[in-house]
């Protein structure tokens, strides 16, 4: 299997950003709807301090990535682009390895640029978690 390059990785990330943004918006609408039902008008998004929004969003992204990589080896964006995260034995990473990979992706996103100089086309999060992102189109 061939390791995925920078353009494929970034295109998949764009799709994933859209999915996470939609999930964040949906969560805000649900919380606002509950608040509206309990307290009455007006229908507004709950006021959150910036740090709380940032922490919540970061947690959502880490959970999103960890779940996708643990369950199927790919996020929805990677599915669309025909990519899959695998370990040396060709299987999706386990929960701990997927969590480590997700944390490195979120904390050090510029590490993806390492694929430009890596002879095996690995990003920093691949090196740390001992994974590789490969081209593996879905069977449909």
Verbal overview:
- This protein has helices at 6-39, 50-71, 76-81, 95-107, 124-129; strands at residues 83-86, 132-135.
- It has 140 residues and is mainly alpha-helical.
- It has one domain (6-135).
- It has a two-stranded antiparallel sheet with strand order 1-2.
- Helix 2 (50-71) packs across helix 4 (95-107).
- The longest helix has 34 residues, at 6-39.
- It is elongated and about 60 Å long.
- The two termini are 18 Å apart.
- Keywords: Cell membrane, Membrane, Transmembrane, Transmembrane helix.
Domain count: the total is 1
Strand content: 5-15%
Rg from Cα: 17 Å
What is the overall shape? elongated
- For the biggest β-sheet, the strand order reads 1-2
Structure summary, number of beta strands:
2
Instruction: Bin the helical content.
Output: 55-70%
How widely separated are the two ends? 18 Å
Secondary structure elements and pairings:
Blueprint: H1 6-39, H2 50-71, H3 76-81, E1 83-86, H4 95-107, H5 124-129, E2 132-135
Antiparallel strand pairs: 1-2
Main location: membrane
Transmembrane segments: 51-71, 98-117
InterPro entries: Pra-immunoreactive (IPR051791), RDD (IPR010432)
